[in-house]
Each structure stands twice: as C-alpha cells, then as structure tokens.
Amino acid sequence: MSVKPPRPLGVTILAILSGISGIFSILAAIGFGALMGLGMMAMLREAIREYGRVLPIAIPIGTIVLIIAAILFIMGLIDLAIAWGLWTGKGWAWWLVIIFTGLGILMQLGNLGLTLLGTVALLSYPRALPGTIFSIVIILVGLGINVLIIWYFFRPHVKAYFGMGPAVAQPPPPPPPPV
C-alpha cells in the first residue's frame, strides 16, 4: 500500500490562487449581471418613455450581457473545482492544469505574434512604441509563468502527488538517538 506524498508547496500556492480566481470570477459575474441588468432596465424604461416601445437592439444586448455573466460564472465554478482538485491531489486536476496552461501558452504565442505584427505597422508612429514594448514584455512574462507551471507539473514529486507517476522514494527515518 503506497502512502500519498505530501502536497508540494507550488501546488498549494496554485490551488489557493485558483480558488481566489474562482471567487472573484463568480463575484464579477454576479456584479456584472446585476449592474448590467439595472442598466438595461433603465435603458428600456427610457426607451419606452421616449419612443413608446422597446427598441429592437435591447434583446440582443440583454442576451450578450447574460451570456457574458454566465461565462464568468462557469469559469469561476471551474476555477473552484480545479482549486479543490489541486488541494486534494486529484488526477483530473493535474490534466486540467496541463490542458488550460497549454491553451494559455498557445493564446499567448498568438497574442505575441499579433503584437509583433502590429509593432511592424507602428514603426512609422514612434509614440505608440513604448506601450507596444510594454505589451510584449507582459506577454513574455505570462508565457514564462505558463511554461514554468507546465515544467513544474511534470516534476516527479508533483506527478506522484497526483498519482500520475511513481512515488518518489522517501528517505528512511533517522535512527533513534542513543540512550
């Protein structure tokens, strides 16, 4: 019978950050939905008062607001589930982190390519260059963090914690002190 290894510090940090992200995403969904709902109600009331009817654009705008709030809420629930899975060492959480981090790397590479392409177009407008360089630095930092997360999750002791690899050999306990 194998003993589950202790939770690595990096996994603990990522679980806490994922939990915080999930809570903020859910709160953002609720706040966004509530504020936009109040704004939509005010807009509809004003449209009815001024035009005597609801404008045709109101329904698509309301639908878009609802979809955005729902996506934020679902992302928050996924973040909370990942946080719990990381905290408890579930194998599916390891896979989700690898998949989402890999997708993040792909998106950052695409973002970097588009930003570099835009930089070429902005060479004739030098005042925009500092902001573009700052964007490139931020993208590279995010890319580096995601690459480090992938590297970390493939470390033997992390994979062992999630049951994804052989258990890392624990050193034998120290001998009892002489009497």
Query: What sequence of helices (H) and strands (E) makes up the elements?
Result: HHHHH
Helix content: over 70%
Total beta-strand segments: 0
Q: Name the shape in a single word.
A: flat
Q: Mean pLDDT, as a whole number? A: 88
Name the structural class.
mainly alpha
- What count of helical segments does DSSP give? 5
Largest sheet: none
Low-confidence segments = none
Rg, nearest Å:
24 Å
Tell me the count of domains. Answer: 2
How many angstroms does the end-to-end distance come to? 33 Å
Oligomer category = single chain
Measured by DSSP, the beta-strand proportion falls in under 5%
Structure notes:
This protein has 179 residues and is mainly alpha-helical. It folds into two domains: 80 residues; 77 residues. Helices cover 77% and strands 0% of the residues. The chain is flat, with a radius of gyration of 24 Å. The protein starts with 8 loop residues before the first helix and ends in an 18-residue tail after the last helix. The mean pLDDT is 88.
